[in-house]
Specification:
Elements: E1 8-13, H1 18-30, E2 34-37, H2 48-60, E3 67-71, H3 75-82, E4 89-91, H4 95-103, E5 109-113, H5 119-130, H6 144-156, H7 160-165
Parallel strand pairs: 1-2, 1-3, 3-5, 4-5
Helix pairs in contact: 1-5, 2-3, 4-5
């Protein structure tokens, strides 16, 4: 698997997200990232959901640890990628949201909407998302990692039929004590 810590990422966009993808991809390659672009030309930019499936498959097949997706709103491509096994996707519109998607939710795919995100913001969001992982920056918050790891694990192994059969409750839920939020934490 190609890892973000080794500066590897896979990207893709539909027609609406293509210009933002190009700006972010250029920034990443200029900064030493190896970027696999599943939609290298505008002609390769299929419908948003098909790009979401295609890039998501790179996560499911364990080719890449993290991916970036781009469409007009970020929403449609996110929904499609989320249908692919092992994809934990987030739609982000700010640097703090991108950071939190990586550090609290352990997302492996971030979607951005080119209708709302300027290239400079998109570059900063990509940097925040790709350079952080679960728990980073929250070491002073007792139980933060454990609490969020449970959330990730339960999403990763979620079986709707078992959930339904258990009265719409998680089967064998785990618990973690989440300490009080540190006073100095900005977000």
């Amino acid at each position: 698997m190609k890892l973000a810590k080794d500066r590897h990422v896979v990207v893709g966009a539909d027609f609406a997200g293509f210009p933002l993808k190009e700006a972010v991809k250029s920034h990443l390659t200029e900064n030493g990232w190896q970027v696999k672009d599943m939609t290298p030309t505008l002609d390769d930019a299929d419908m948003y959901h098909r790009v979401g499936f295609l890039v998501g498959s790179q996560i499911a097949e364990q080719e890449y640890e993290k991916a970036l997706l781009f469409c007009g709103s970020g929403m449609g491509i996110h929904v499609a990628a989320s249908k692919v096994p092992h994809v934990h996707a987030a739609v982000c519109e700010s640097v703090p949201a991108a950071l939190r998607a990586a550090t609290a939710n352990n997302c492996n795919v971030m979607a951005m909407g080119a209708f709302y995100i300027a290239p400079r913001l998109g570059r900063a969001m990509a940097d925040a998302f790709l350079s952080h992982s679960l728990g980073e920056g929250y070491e002073d918050w007792d139980g933060f990692y454990e609490y969020h790891r449970i959330g990730y694990d339960e999403c990763e192994t979620f079986d709707y039929e078992a959930y339904r059969a258990n009265g719409f409750r998680v089967v064998e839920p785990r618990e973690a004590d989440l300490g009080p939020e540190p006073r100095a934490l900005a977000f």
